[in-house]
């Protein structure tokens, strides 16, 4: 997965948001799950939203389509996501709030 900014915003807050996004996408790429394709309805990672505050806080929301994964597999993925950001390489990202949203077809 490659981060893709939706708005061409400039400045420090934009650069910070981009850094957070790169850490998170690094985690996505380390999993066996691919990006979601809305044309074929395949893949898992649907969207990533990163919001930053003027106080330097960062919130990340990862949207994931479980497809046919068991609840145990999804729970394992959530646990590895938490570990990545609490103890692993994602800790340096500075993400202060992390949300995982399971989202199926609309």
Q: What's the gist of this structure?
A:
33% of the residues lie in helices and 20% in strands.
Outline the structure in words.
This protein has helices at 12-30, 71-86; strands spanning 45-52, 58-64, 97-102. The chain has 106 residues and is an alpha+beta fold. A 3-stranded mixed sheet has the order 1-2-3, with helices on one face. The protein is globular and about 40 Å long. The model is unreliable at 7-11 (pLDDT under 50).
| N-C termini distance | 22 Å
User: Unreliable runs, pLDDT <50, ≥5 residues?
Assistant: 7-11
DSSP, total strands? 3
The mean pLDDT is: 80
Instruction: Give the C-alpha Rg.
Output: 14 Å
Keywords, please?
alpha+beta; single chain; globular; 33% helix; 106 residues
Secondary-structure blueprint:
Blueprint (H helix, E strand, L loop, with lengths): L11 H19 L14 E8 L5 E7 L6 H16 L10 E6 L4
């Amino acid at each position: 997965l490659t981060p893709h900014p939706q708005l061409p915003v400039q400045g420090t807050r934009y650069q910070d948001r981009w850094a957070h996004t790169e850490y998170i996408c690094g985690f996505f790429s380390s999993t066996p799950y691919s990006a979601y394709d809305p044309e074929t309805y395949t893949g898992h990672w649907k969207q990533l939203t990163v919001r930053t505050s003027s106080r330097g806080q960062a919130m990340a929301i990862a949207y994931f389509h479980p497809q046919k994964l068991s609840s145990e597999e999804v729970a394992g993925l959530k646990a590895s996501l938490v570990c990545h950001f609490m103890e692993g390489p994602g800790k340096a990202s500075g993400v202060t709030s992390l949300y995982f949203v399971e989202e199926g077809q609309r």
